[in-house]
Structures are given as C-alpha cells and as structure tokens.
Design a protein that fits this description.
Blueprint: H1 2-20, E1 22-31, H2 42-59, E2 63-67, H3 78-89, E3 94-98, H4 111-129, E4 136-137, H5 148-160, E5 164-165, E6 170-171, H6 174-186, H7 190-219, E7 225-230, H8 233-248, E8 251-253, H9 256-259, H10 279-282, H11 287-296, H12 302-312
Helix pairs in contact: 2-3, 2-8, 4-5, 6-7, 6-12
Length: 313
C-alpha cells in the first residue's frame, strides 16, 4: 500500500513539474545577411555567421531561422553568398524557414507581389535545402495584412504552399540594441557596448516575465514561448549570455515545431490589423482588454528608443 501511494505521489509531482516547466523556442529573423551591419563585407557576414553558429552549437539550442534570400541573387561574390546561406541551412540545430525575399512589408503590397516574395524566396532556400519540408513563413514586421480579408488571402496562399504563418510570443526590440551596439563598437566604445548588452538582457528578461504572467492569465499555465530575435552582431558576440540568463530563469530550449504542438497555438486570433505585436495579445478577444495589456507591456527604455531614433535619422 505504501509503495502504491508513493508511486501516485511521484506521478503527481511529475505532472506538476511538467505543468510548471518553462520552455522556449528561439527564432532568428533576417538570416543570413539582413540583420548584420550594413557596412559589413560578404566575408565579414560569413565570419559572423560562422561564429554565431558556433555559439548555437555550444549552447545546444535548436533555432528556427527566417531567411531573406535577396542577397544570394547578387552576382558579386555569389559563391561566398551561397556558401554562407548553406552553412546556416545545413547546421544540425537549425531549421530553415521563409521570411520573404526582400523583407518588404508584405501586409501592404498587392497579393500578386506577396506571392512572388514567398515563391522566389522558397526557390532560393530550396537550392540549398532541397525537397525537405519548409513549414513556416514569418511576415516581415509581423504585418499579415490591413484587415481580415487581406490576411485571409495571404494565409490561404501560404497554406496552399504548405506554410504556416509563424507566431511569436516574446520579443525585446533586439534590432534597436544591435544597431546601437554596432555603433558603439565602430567608435571603439567598449563600456558603452557592454552597457547595451546588459540592458538588452534585462529588457529581454522583463519581456519573458510579462509573457509568463499573461500566459498564466490566459491559459492558466506556462505555455512554450516563442522568442523572436535577429541574427545580428549583438547575438554573435553575446548569444551565450542571453541563453545563460534564460536558463537561470528556468527555461529549457525546444524547437519551434515542438512549441507549436501546444494547444495554445491553436487559439483563435482576434486581431486583424497591421501592427506586429505578440500573439499573446492577438489571442485576446476583447479589444479594450487587449489595449490595456499592450499599454502595460514592457518596452525598451526610453533612452534606448531615443538613441535609436537619432541613429536612424
């Protein structure tokens, strides 16, 4: 009898642990060229990609990459460009996916142009990936269309091509930190660069804390999070620190495909506008409640945003 009760106790403990497990799928956009500093040569992008892939290997984190293939259409150093893309796609921890050809705003363009962006990029990826499945397409800027009709047209085309529109639940504007980080490196400001890394990781953890709380309020539990970030120099240099911070918070790392098996990702979407915010907000039916959560969600520090705006202009 005691042995039987002990087995029941162990089973209950395991169920509780599973319910409280923190899981995250890492996704990286703009691979392999578009998120690296524009001043980089093809050789520098190739070297940075090699280093970032080494960091991913060291951390043993599955990563789904969203590819823009337009750079591979350039005749300049074409062999090196294709070799760079191939090194990403053939890595054992990497799952390739489509992010449109040129990273234009696919939600604003005519449907025929959208189809071209998807299909030409599909062709480029398959030149190195072959006939293996390409499951996911992520809209640039996460804008799926101006309204429900426009989104339905685009999503139907993706479905016909065998794609699922890729969601995300957490992002932390890493593109802003990356631009400021690159500027600090260019002016040899090591202290400034280090401060940006620290602030980026702090901001990212705040985003995860908010997503965890919102997940519990919506679903009564932790759901597998999907983190959207970019293949940039910031992660090339500091991917290990990011992953260590998430591990310290209790996260284990899974593939996007595994995350998408959670029933949360079958939830109906109630937002049909052009803004590219998290699916945790899009799953909220009441627009007023959604707006309140959006107002309460953590943003990049105002100083970071201001510095990025100045840098961009």
């Amino acid at each position: 009898m005691i042995k039987y009760l002990f087995l029941i106790f162990c089973w209950c403990v395991s169920l509780t642990a599973a319910a409280q497990a923190k899981l995250v799928a890492i996704t990286m956009d703009d691979v392999p060229f578009n998120a690296m500093p524009s001043r980089y040569t093809v050789e520098q992008v190739k070297a940075a990609g090699k280093t970032l892939l080494e960091k991913i290997t060291q951390q043993q984190t599955p990563v789904t990459i969203f590819i823009n293939g337009d750079a591979c259409m350039s005749p300049e150093k074409a062999a090196e460009r294709w070799e760079t893309l191939r090194s990403w796609v053939n890595h054992p921890l990497i799952t390739p996916a489509n992010h449109s050809l040129r990273h234009l705003n696919c939600g604003e363009m005519p449907l025929a142009q959208f189809r071209e962006e998807v299909s030409i990029n599909d062709y480029i990826i398959r030149k190195v990936w072959g006939d293996k499945p390409l499951r996911y397409f992520r809209f640039p800027f996460n804008n799926q269309g101006k309204d429900s009709a426009a989104q339905a047209e685009r999503l139907q085309y993706l479905h016909d091509k065998g794609y699922t529109a890729a969601p995300f639940t957490v992002e932390s504007a890493d593109y802003m930190y990356a631009a400021l980080y690159d500027a600090a490196l260019a002016r040899k400001d090591k202290a400034g660069a280090a401060a940006l890394v620290k602030e980026y990781i702090r901001s990212t953890l705040a985003g995860f804390a908010f997503a965890e709380q919102l997940s519990k309020e919506q679903f009564g539990r932790n759901i597998p999070q999907i983190y959207l970030c970019h293949a940039n120099q910031l992660h090339t240099d500091h991917y290990g620190e990011l992953i260590a911070a998430l591990r310290e918070r209790g996260y284990q790392f899974i593939s996007m495909e595994a995350a998408m098996q959670d029933t949360a990702y079958a939830s109906p979407v109630y937002y049909y506008g052009p803004y590219g915010f998290s699916w945790l907000f899009r799953w909220i039916k009441d627009a007023a409640v959604r707006k309140q959560y959006l107002r309460n969600s953590p943003d990049a520090d105002a100083k970071i945003y201001s510095a990025y705006e100045q840098l961009s202009h």
